Amino acid sequence: MDVYLPIANLSVNGLFIVALGALTGVLSGLFGVGGGFLTTPLLIFYGIPPTVAAASASTQVTGASVSGVLAHNRRGGVDYRMGLVTVAGGAIGSGIGALLFRFFQSLGQIDTVISILYVVMLGTIGTLMAREAWTAIRASKTGERPVVAKRRHHPLVASLPMRWRFYRSGLYISPLAPLILGVAVGILTMLMGVGGGFILVPAMLYILGMSAGVVVGTSLFNILFVTMVTTMMHALTTKAVDIVLAGLLLLGSVSGAQIGSQLAQKARPEALRLVLAAIVLLVALRMLFGLGVRPDEIYTVSPL
To answer: How many C-beta atoms lie closer than 10 Å to residue 282's C-beta?
Structure first.
């Protein structure tokens, strides 16, 4: 079943795109990540221009975040005050990201910028995840318990003025810290088409010092609204959102996420993290290889 992607000016196999969305959905449900950081590079490997892939993949992340927020809300796992601050920062970051996107697009370098960002981010995250998972596996084999330090917010966060109480997170910190964090995630979401959860969750834990019980739900709350804003920004400014591509991805990811969540209950968490780290590093290496190889067609997508 061939379908035409109007923005990408490309005919693709619709069933393959749905299957790709389902695969990403399985990974999302299996590993507890939004999946956007894998969807975009996989679309690029398939031949979708990076601009269109990044702009369209955020729609899939939005849809996948809705059920997660509802589930965490039922058990009180969402800090809405913290979430609203990060969403405000994400909206600001999306505007900044849109300007950067248009700037690099005008230079004809946006595809290269997206690829470089993915190589750096996936390489760093994959390495950290692999080290943590391997340490956990080794500790479980030897019977040792890993030393867990008491969670506190970063000293720089403590030095910021105008403190607020975030009761569900158990914090008394300046709202400037989550606001700045939200800005950074908004910029990355706009440029890379990711939800930002793979950055936001560890940042909430180790920089803000949030309670682990509300981190995932609050992160999903932020992702839900920030990806909605970035999708609108892309549609209005970069005009790179391909609604056909986004619809096919969303169709596959909804069913795939349910399968992944069932599989996750039967596997060891540290083994899953190690597998995910390996996948992330392989994707980073493939994108690094692509940066050094001359493409068949040297062009980028730009609005008319």
So the answer is: 12
